[in-house]
Design brief:
The chain has about 325 residues and is mainly α. Helix content is about 75%, strand content about 0%.
Length: about 325
């Protein structure tokens, strides 16, 4: 491997580690909103209630810890997801930049189409590698509520299974294919980060032409990108969550059939259950993610530069 290739590889890993770290921090801060959104998505034909009522109900039945059901698998999932996504995105972007230099283009910055292609490749690789993690997480988040609803008054609910226990139970009861439930809508949802990062990159590039981009700018641009992307793709997020919690005895339906069934049984609003907490969580998470990622990336680069200096010479 040439020195230039080694430097690029190191930079890709720095971006991937920064993305993983940023994802962990932002997920931990906003996880209760994920719990509220996921439970709303997988419930059907249930009386609608406000977010405040949902929070009160969860705390009453499960304690404050109920708002963090599945947090362990979610933190693991977001760190792996972001590491894989940012690694492949930076690898693809580096390829486009090299091509731009060879073509004699005035700037190496990615065009809108190139940003979308880079996002599609990175997103598809991420979905295929991490879908099992999110199936386990959705089961844990949704099923904990069921364990509380199905017990007799005054009786103690069954202890919620661990992440490993849920994973092994899925393999034992439903087979390996259950780990890839909802992978098709998840692949469709690759358009979410494509829209998010494309909007973010283009807004950032536009702003950079006028002045230096600050941490506050990154925060707000990340929020705008995620707000638009999540609002557009939310129906597929609902379908994916429903498919994740479907057990082996449930009727297996295709993605489009699932969309039609939700509209038929619950109306168009059924596709947007939990959108309030989800959009709020997604926007806040994305804003913090971009901010944390830049900070973690700077720290990673500094640590990498200081590392050789700390190695004693013989």
């Amino acid at each position: 491997m040439s020195s230039q290739a080694a430097v690029q590889q190191s930079d890709n890993i720095a971006h991937a580690l920064a993305g993983a770290g940023g994802g962990l921090a932002s997920m931990a801060l906003t996880y209760p909103l994920i719990t509220l959104s996921t439970r709303a998505q997988v419930e059907s034909k249930r009386a609608h209630s406000s977010v405040i009522d949902a929070i009160r109900r969860i705390i009453q039945r499960e304690g404050a810890a109920g708002l963090y059901a599945g947090l362990e698998s979610a933190l693991f999932g977001i760190s792996v997801t972001n590491f894989v996504y940012y690694y492949w995105y930076e690898w693809t972007r580096a390829g486009f930049e090299k091509a731009a230099v060879k073509a004699g283009r005035a700037t190496k910055k990615l065009t809108t189409i190139e940003s979308m292609i880079a996002g599609a490749l990175a997103g598809s690789a991420t979905v295929l590698l991490t879908n099992p993690i999110w199936v386990v997480n959705t089961r844990m988040t949704a099923r904990k509520q069921e364990s509380y609803e199905q017990v007799l008054p005054g009786a103690k609910p069954k202890r919620a299974p661990t992440t490993l226990g849920t994973f092994l139970s899925l393999l034992r009861d439903e087979g390996p294919t259950a780990l890839f439930a909802g992978v098709l809508p998840a692949l469709v949802l690759v358009i979410n980060p494509i829209l998010q990062y494309t909007i973010f990159e283009q807004l950032k590039n536009t702003l950079e032409k006028r002045r230096r981009v600050t941490a506050a700018d990154v925060f707000y641009l990340g929020a705008i990108g995620k707000l638009l992307a999540t609002s557009i793709t939310y129906p597929y997020i609902t379908v994916k969550s429903r498919m994740h919690v479907a057990g082996k005895d449930d009727e297996k339906v295709k993605m489009l059939d699932s969309l039609k069934r939700i509209v038929r049984d619950e109306g168009w609003s059924g596709l947007y259950k939990g959108i309030g907490p989800k959009v709020t969580q997604s926007v806040i998470t994305a804003a913090f993610l971009f901010t944390f990622k830049d900070a973690f990336y700077d720290l990673t680069v500094k640590a990498r530069r200081n590392l050789p200096a700390k190695i004693p010479t013989k």
